[in-house]
């Protein structure tokens, strides 16, 4: 009870203690300049349960590398990235959108969607109207050239998807897509 009162009276000391414990837990070796013996390092590695070959983040990164490779292969010679393709297809489907809403629909943070919009503007694929001071509120729409370009890329994008999923049977493809949706959409505290 006295420690609760002390924490309320001096929240900085409580935060400092918590931070100190967290730092101590993260690495027993962080402040130690002595060499860690190989057997001790290997024992710590094995005790952690970490295995790069089966780590989900690593496997997703490898799958992303392959998907990016296929995208570049299929879109060969086009000045187009997967995020730009996502924005073009989303504008094709929904019509005019605010830059902010386009970013949310394509799961891009404000900085990323801003870069994507700048590139699509430069290439003449979209037009923007609205306040110049707050570009998040700007309304974005496809130009005629952009609409034609986006339509032509739909089949290419589906070819990328076909190549990415090719190693899997149709039931496995369905399962993978369901699982990826659960991972991608599952954490309400993300971002």
Mind explaining what this structure looks like?
This protein has 191 residues and is mainly alpha-helical. The chain has a domain at 58-166: Winged helix-like DNA-binding domain superfamily/Winged helix DNA-binding domain (Arc Repressor Mutant, subunit A, Orthogonal Bundle). The chain contains 9 helices and 3 strands; from the N terminus they run H-H-H-H-H-E-H-H-E-E-H-H. It has helices at 2-9, 11-26, 38-48, 56-74, 82-94, 99-105, 110-122, 144-165, 170-185; strands spanning 97-98, 126-129, 139-142. A 3-stranded antiparallel beta sheet has the order 1-3-2. Helix 4 (56-74) crosses helix 8 (144-165), helix 5 (82-94) crosses helix 8 (144-165) and helix 6 packs across helix 7 (110-122). It is extended, with a radius of gyration of 24 Å. The chain starts with a helix and ends in a 6-residue tail after the last helix.
